[in-house]
Design goal:
Elements: H1 2-33, E1 35-43, E2 54-62, E3 72-82, E4 85-89, H2 92-96, H3 99-104, H4 114-127, H5 129-134, E5 137-140, E6 143-151, E7 154-162, E8 168-177, H6 200-213, E9 214-223, E10 234-245, E11 251-263, E12 266-270, H7 280-289, H8 295-308, E13 318-322, E14 325-333, E15 336-344, E16 350-356, H9 361-368, E17 381-384, E18 389-392, E19 397-403, H10 406-411, E20 415-420, E21 423-428, E22 437-442, E23 450-459, E24 471-479
Parallel strand pairs: 18-24
Antiparallel strand pairs: 1-2, 2-3, 3-4, 5-6, 6-7, 7-8, 9-10, 10-11, 11-12, 13-14, 14-15, 15-16, 17-19, 19-22, 20-21, 20-23, 23-24
Amino acid sequence: MKNLKLLLVAMLILTGSISAQKNIADAQNYLDQKLKKTSSLILSTKQQDIINADIAQARIDLNISVNNYDVMNIINLYFIIKNGKTYSFRELDNLITSREFLEAINPKFKLQTNEDAEKLRAVLGTLDKKIIRRGKVFKKTGYWGFSWEDWFGEIKYYKVKVSPKGKIIKIQKAKEKIEITEIPVNRSLYYENENLSLDGSHKKLLDKGLKRVLRTYKFTVKPLEIENLSLNLDLLDVNLGILKLYDDGYAEGNNQNFILINENQKFKTISNKEELLYDKSFQKAVAQKHKIRNQNEAEKFEGIINQLIQNAKPEYRKVYKKENIWYFIRDKFFDDLSGVLVLVNSKGEILHIEYFNKITDEAITKMKTHDPNFKLDYQFKLVEPATKKITASPNDRVRVNITFNENAVNANNCYIATYLNDEMMGFSTASSMESPFRDKIPVSELNQNGKNSIKYALMPAGKRDVKDAIEVIEIEVEVKN
């Protein structure tokens, strides 16, 4: 019997290990599929004859949403392509002021006249759009200026130094207080690149350029460890290590960390452990596997929360219960408490979990809406006019005053819509609705022959049809001349 128990334990450990390895392999495969390489031509020798080189952009992105960004950029480079070689730059302004860009300028081009300046501005503006949007052209002894910002006389610009015969000898970024006289040029002139395409040889050169700079990028995936947390959900800790060595010798290394949730082979990304508390699938998974029936279980559950919210202030930490909500207070700012609220039923089963930066009456009402036995009282009442049937003349205005329970309305993200003769004529919504709701309707805008129906509907979020209203107040207005 003892050997059988040991065998069963060993089989369970092996099964768990195989499952964990599969989850990691699935995550690696998912991340690899989300890598996207793109490249585009910004300026071509076919468009203009000032620069004897093509200018292109190439980048690699991880197409997942982390830290409020839709993509995570791994590398983004700009290239000068000339004579079958590429020269890479981190930013376009580095490219413009580089030796390679200077050497790519057509020897026949001379910067001597306003027309020459207009042509060069078109090239610079194609590469650096802020020149087109806000730029000015001016001339000083020995150089021309192509600006993009004037802050109380302090000019930011590209200083293009020229020889007495107009040969460009240096381009540099400058910022200084100078007086300038703007030279009139065609400010809308630049080179469109929407219809440009890279040929196969260009793409190969850009791929080599990316590989030359991006020395390594590697995903390290492992199970996310949260002690005493049991879930029917796979949480994975991901680290993306990146090392870049640029052509100018500058080295850059960084690590990006995030969490992957694997729910039945459907992946989603979370920025960090604390963000898990906002995720509905995580909330649901915790609720399915945990109960809080007493203070002792609440304090054990607090141990899980402490691993998720690691910057909580010890002096403000409290755990207590009011009605059917457990309060896990983590911080206090003036009189506002913040923390995790956990709604439970009479058996201690978790109905809902949510983190609040401010635990307000509205937040508590919002929690209670997840209790199937709780009914919201919106207290949607007409105060003015005193009657729902009124008679008015064309010069009158119908004044409307409606009160409501702010906590209930905001907890359910409701809004108030106005319907005139069953057609929506407006709505009032905000991140936080305030009572009372007031309106003034000119009678002159109503149907002058007969009765008008004005409805104020308390609407659930995402609904427009008055049939879906939670509550409706209807006022009948008859116009009499």
